[in-house]
Amino acid sequence: MSAADRTIPPPSPTRRAKDLAFRLALLGCLGISVLLLGVLLYDVIKDGAGHLDMHFLTSFTSISADKAGAQAAIWGTIWLMGICGVFIVPVGVATAIYLEEYADDARWYNRLIEVNIQNLAAVPSVVYGILGLAFLVRGPLALGNTVLAGGLTLGLLVLPVVIISGREAIRAVPPSIREGSRALGATQWQTIWRQVLPASIPGIATGVILALSRAIGETAPLIVVGAATVIAFNPDGLDSQFTALPIQIFDWISRASNDVNNYKPLAAAAILLLMIMLLAMNSVAIWLRNRYEQKW
Amino acid sequence: MERVTEPPEIRARRDVVPPTPQVVAAPASTERKPREAIFGLEGVQVSYGVKPAVRDVSFEIGRHEITALIGPSGCGKSTLIRCLNRMNDLIPGARVEGRVLYHDQDLYGPGIDAVEVRKRIGMVFQKPNPFPKSIFDNIAFGPRVLGMKGDMDEMVERALKQGALWDEVKDRLKTNAFGMSGGQQQRLCIARALAVSPDVILMDEPCSALDPISTGKIEDLMLELKQDYSIVIVTHNMQQAARVSDKTAFFTVELDDQEHRSGRVVEFDDTEKIFTNPGDSRTEAYVTGKVG
Questions:
Q1: Interface membership of B123 toward A (CB under 8 Å)
Q2: Which residue from B16, B1, B30, B13 is spatially nearest to B246, judged by alpha carbons?
Q3: Residue to substitute from A178, A181, A182, A184, interface B, most B β-carbons within 10 A
Q4: In chain A, what is the straight-line distance between the N-terminal and C-terminal CA atoms, in Å?
Q5: Burial of B119 (0-12, 13-18, 19+ CB in 10 A)
Q6: Distance from CA of residue B87 to its chain's centroid?
Q7: Which of B176, B101, B171 lies closest to B138, judged by CA?
Q8: Using a CB-CB distance cutoff of 8 angstroms, which residues of chain B are in contact with residue A102?
Q9: Whole-complex ipTM
Q10: Residues A184-202: pLDDT tens digits?
Q11: Which pTM does this prediction carry?
């Protein structure tokens, strides 16, 4: 080997240029989505920020835009999330436990259930609205256009999300923990209740919050199950009529506006409020994950 | 176990049999008493699916003895130890044939509950598997799920003392067990098994993930525990088997005409005999490091 071969050659300009071009292309794609989000945010904040005050939070909707607020929608949304959460936590976690800890994958019906749960997560939300209308509002349960029917419909919609994330959290608990517990004479249920579930709670809770944050923005199924648009009272029980923030936004945007009665800023303020609630929920999910996640 | 060069292996063997005064004292006392069998294996065969993983296993495991199961990888020694407390029940498709007698009762007989079996026959695994809880809760888990009555603080202290861990952890019982060293974690797992007052402790390669110093501590612990418990240990470390065990079963892998591997017992005898004067040439080749 001659001395010339041993010197490190200068960098090839074309290779460096390609590297740079690729990097810029990736950055550009990121830029597009960030820009779109930025424009959307700017538009909503410009219109809505001024209206997002105590009056907006504490007044009911009204035929005159400057008196209208979102109180009924806020409380409606809170009721819906409460009902939805009470429904999805036990049902979703129990299903996840069955599928992970008990179901024998060799059985065809267990595989069928698994595939169907994956598929259910992709069914359009309006279809769940129709299901809710047929089985909860009318049909066998005949709950009527109540907040209970609305919450359960949203629960059905996001149940697959809870089940899938719950299964992942349960699967993340290493088999050696179950073996250690069983080897001490613990039964399968004691092992699940005292070892597997406590270790997977952070993951399950994260999944539940993400499911709720999907439910909070859903509009179509609520319209189908008959959420009201103009009501001037908060839900006072499971059987009361209700409205919700996305419904209120939809209603305000679709109303004819003029200079005297301008509903557009109200819609923008409600969108902002919904985004703040979403952001808060997702922050809690991230915090939960970072704070309690078990490293194995 | 990787191939070891022969001369140091043989030298090590002579040095370690008999290694420490404890070992000399213990077998001497058990040999004078009539040997009492705790397990009787009669033609045991364990299969995963249709093919047997280990077959034709017949020998007796004595009370207050350490019985070592040695042999090359895939010879079924871990499979066998896991059928002594019915841990194989947890593996779908695992099937045990023959008889596993525990105090003359067939563990796989009708009306025997695997949960009851595991209360009496504890197990320590290859990799330390502490629960993601405090040291205290790790020990207290067994007594709690079994509904044992008594002062929990006392039970935990006793188990940790038996596990030779008390002095190291008594000031941090409420801290998470994941903060302990690997060797401490494994002694915690042993103490955890002791907390439910078992009769037998099964150890499946308990030191394979540990450094020599931690290994030495666990071996000392085993020799102490032998006074009160019966121990069965699977090990890849032949010096370990020679150092601690009273009886040794040597397993080997056989290929059948369909190229299927299954394990069987070549020789079961006093550890000293297995390591100094084995009856089978395959045992001799393995313990002297010529194969395996």
A1: yes
A2: B30
A3: A184
A4: 51
A5: buried
A6: 13
A7: B176
A8: none
A9: 0.82
A10: 999 999 999 999 999 999 9
A11: 0.82
